Amino acid sequence: MDSDTFWAAVALVLVIEGLLPFLSPAAWRRMFQQILQLHDGQIRFFGLCSIVAGLLLIWLLL
Asked: Entry's PANTHER family (predicted)?
């Protein structure tokens, strides 16, 4: 993988991650309050789903 492509991907992740707190800080805060109420296993499951979805998307694009 080209290092420019890697850094562009990291930059895009930062932009996407910053959209919700920038556009709606109250909704972002509520979301984190709800996440804090989840059990570790539930949070791990969502993390795993995110990893799998990302890997599938990369596989489809390459």
From this structure: INNER MEMBRANE PROTEIN (PTHR38602:SF1), INNER MEMBRANE PROTEIN-RELATED (PTHR38602)
